[in-house]
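Researcher: Let's do a round of design. I'm pasting the structure tokens now; please hold your answer until I've finished.
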């Protein structure tokens, strides 16, 4: 889904679009668009593409781009709490972003996420884990 820029005159975003709020909180999508055991790709304004996961009712958000060779992880499979890349099958532990096997060796950035008023939001200025940390 394509993101839309925040408009302070008309703050209501079109349905299904991510919104950058003045407090740097980014509204990604309604939580009910991510069923348990599923993941969706969101392209928020000003941020890298993100993957939103629902693992046993808990929402997580990571970078969507595989750290090995730039594949979209949401084109892969979610197996429990591990997302498996569709290209070379590296797995990443979603809550921590840590790679589980080769060929990936760098962690995904994990964003601090929450559900607020029925929407999944992230705070990009304070990621939970940065892929650069590993
Ligand atoms: S592109 Fe993801 S493991 Fe190679």
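Researcher: That's everything. Go ahead.
Model: Designed sequence:
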């Amino acid at each position: 889904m394509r993101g839309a820029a925040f408009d302070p005159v008309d703050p209501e975003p079109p349905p299904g679009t991510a919104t950058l709020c003045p407090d740097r909180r980014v509204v990604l999508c309604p939580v009910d668009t991510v069923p348990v055991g599923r993941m969706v790709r969101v392209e928020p304004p000003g941020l890298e593409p993100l993957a939103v996961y629902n693992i046993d009712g808990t929402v997580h958000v990571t970078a969507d781009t595989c750290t090995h060779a730039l594949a979209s992880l949401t084109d892969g499979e979610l197996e429990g709490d591990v997302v498996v890349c569709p290209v070379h099958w590296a797995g990443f532990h979603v809550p921590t972003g840590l790679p589980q096997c080769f060929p990936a060796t760098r962690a995904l950035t994990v964003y601090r996420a929450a559900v607020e008023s029925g929407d999944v939001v992230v705070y990009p200025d304070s990621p939970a884990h940065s892929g650069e940390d590993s």
